[in-house]
Design brief:
6-stranded antiparallel beta sheet; 16 helices; alpha+beta
């Protein structure tokens, strides 16, 4: 078993010291000389402690019987000299870097290092760390280690390195717009540019051609005065759209299948347009570029001011991606469960077929206790981007819902209902119910109760690979209602169950900047996250601290007389 020697530990401490030193000089370079002197004193003290710690550790290894490895006195003396020389060399390098930092600080004013500078640097500097957690060390003490299983090894790409690329030029684009008159002009401009400049085949919903504001055969005498005014205002936009009408390809939701027909999606509106795009594609989703033309705009990072340049960059493959995970929900009715169990007994699929079928529902790394889901029909599943909500509906009684995780009973919810959401949906209904907000790149499932009749029921976060089973408790007084992203409202009866797990088909959302900057900008601009009036510094309150209590009371009495 490989073990770290004292010189390796010293090198590890040395690397940590260098990282701390770099950060210290970057910080001290923008502040006064007193801070730099204090930082240098701390680093010198840290070097001395490093030498003492290494020598003490070597002596303990020599005295303790049955150590990890053997070290004689000559090696210990040699290692001590090597560590001392290494530390002295590091101190010399630190002094040289301090001199360079002082010279740079004299050339640049101290006020240049501000909060705005930090924010701009975070979005422009290339990332040196992965967004994924570091791979854990797989040895625990002298004897323990993780048992390796080749079937369970998986490779996860760093979300920060996920960028869009086209293995062939995109030809078809689906344009989804919000039902609002203010979106007509940007919609027509975008479609006209895609057809004439980019020579792309544009798909739109059939309801767009039926929009009265984009038609000339509307009987205006039967419409209201406000509609006639708006219709007349969009005369020029309507003429441009009618010239492109014959070049557009239409589809109807629920009737036409868009699988493998669309290369690229552009959304014009609010967050609902992105949810609608997710609903249209229940399997693989083309890259989605969302423009902010709605009210909230949490999932729409792009602006329509210079859409030509932004869309061109995306079509050329210069864009970062955020893979927004979705939940796969399957309803199991009471009568269907017995029928499925009989089919399982007749078919008895082997382990290889079961693994191949389970990989589509539970992912390629699902547990062995999810075999009951192997008989699910793909047509009965619904993929949601935000959340699936189980509520009591119009019933006056509390919902009594049982939750199972990978077949194990967890708890029962007594309240108004339950929210099972993705990290993307954690800033939607779940956030309003008191849940934490999770970054979309975090693989997790969020379980949030709705107004639970308990003071200790807090929202929980479970791994993305588990399977949740939700059913009505046998002693529940009523049934429940289930909705998927606010749509497809269904009733959950006694004996029915809802199985929820992470889908293998995420929504590739194109970033305007990067995965981190877009999310925090949405928190700040859309939800006004952590917006508070700044606390005054002590200089502004010096007049109150230096004044006596009698003066304050006299001023208060004068104010009362003045008010009278």
């Amino acid at each position: 078993m490989a073990c770290r020697s004292d010189i390796d530990l010293a090198t590890l401490h040395q690397h940590r010291l260098e990282e701390r030193l770099h950060y210290g000089f970057d910080w001290c370079g923008a502040h006064g000389s007193s801070q730099r002197q204090q930082q240098q004193q701390r680093l010198t003290h840290y070097n001395e402690q490093l030498i003492r710690h290494s020598v003490t550790q070597q002596r303990q290894r020599l005295i303790t019987p049955g150590g990890y490895y053997k070290v004689d006195h000559t090696d210990a003396r040699t290692d001590k000299d090597a560590i001392s020389s290494k530390v002295k060399e590091n101190i010399a390098n630190n002094n040289q870097r301090q001199t360079q930092a002082q010279s740079q600080s004299q050339q640049q004013p101290e006020d240049d290092f501000t909060d705005t500078t930090r924010r701009s640097r975070s979005g422009t500097w290339p990332r040196t760390r992965s967004l994924n957690a570091p791979s854990p060390f797989q040895q625990f003490g002298p004897c323990g280690r993780i048992m390796k299983n080749s079937a369970m090894v998986m490779q996860i790409q760093d979300p920060a390195s996920q960028r869009l690329t086209w293995y062939k030029p995109p030809l078809t684009v689906l344009v989804i717009k919000k039902k609002d008159s203010q979106v007509l002009l940007p919609f027509v401009q975008l479609v006209e540019w895609l057809v004439q400049e980019k020579n792309m085949v544009v798909w739109v919903e059939s309801a767009v051609l039926e929009d009265k504001l984009l038609r000339d055969d509307v009987k205006l005498d039967q419409e209201s005065a406000k509609f006639r005014q708006v219709h007349e205002y969009h005369t020029g936009v309507r003429a441009r759209f009618l010239a492109l009408r014959e070049k557009l390809v239409t589809f109807k939701d629920g009737r036409d299948d868009l699988t493998d027909r669309i290369d690229f999606i552009v959304c014009l509106g609010g967050d609902g347009t992105l949810l609608y795009a997710s609903q249209l594609f229940q399997r693989s989703v083309p890259p989605v570029m969302a423009f902010y033309l709605g009210s909230l705009g949490f999932l729409t990072p792009f602006q329509c001011d210079n859409f030509q340049e932004q869309v061109t960059n995306v079509l050329e493959g210069h864009a970062a991606l955020t893979l927004r995970s979705r939940l796969r929900c399957v309803m199991h009715r009471k009568g269907e469960r017995r029928k499925e169990s009989l089919q399982q007994q007749e078919q008895r699929p082997n382990l290889k077929q079961r693994w191949h079928h389970d990989s589509e529902f539970n992912g390629p790394h699902a547990g062995s206790n999810n075999n009951s889901s192997s008989s699910n029909n793909n047509n009965n599943s619904i993929l949601v981007l935000n959340e699936v909500v189980i509520n009591r509906g119009p019933s006056p009684y509390l919902s009594n819902i049982d939750i199972f995780l990978d077949g194990k009973y967890i708890t029962s919810v007594q309240g108004d209902g339950l929210i099972v959401s993705t990290p993307t949906g954690s800033t939607a209904y779940a956030a309003a119910a008191g849940a934490s907000m999770i970054h979309p790149s975090v693989p997790a499932i969020l379980v949030t109760p709705i107004c639970p009749h308990s003071l200790s029921f807090r929202p929980i976060v479970v791994p993305a690979g588990v399977e949740l089973k939700i059913s009505i408790s046998p002693d529940s007084r009523n049934t429940s209602r289930v909705s998927f992203d606010g749509r497809n409202d269904q009733e959950l009866n006694h004996g029915d169950s809802l199985r929820v797990t992470t889908s293998i088909y995420p929504v590739p959302s194109i970033c305007a900047q990067d995965q981190i900057s877009d999310w925090f900008d949405s928190l700040a601009e859309g939800l006004h996250w952590n917006v508070r009036k700044r606390q005054k510094c002590l200089d502004e309150l010096s007049d109150l601290t230096t004044s006596s209590s009698e003066d304050t009371l006299d001023e208060f009495d004068n104010l009362k007389i003045y008010d009278a």
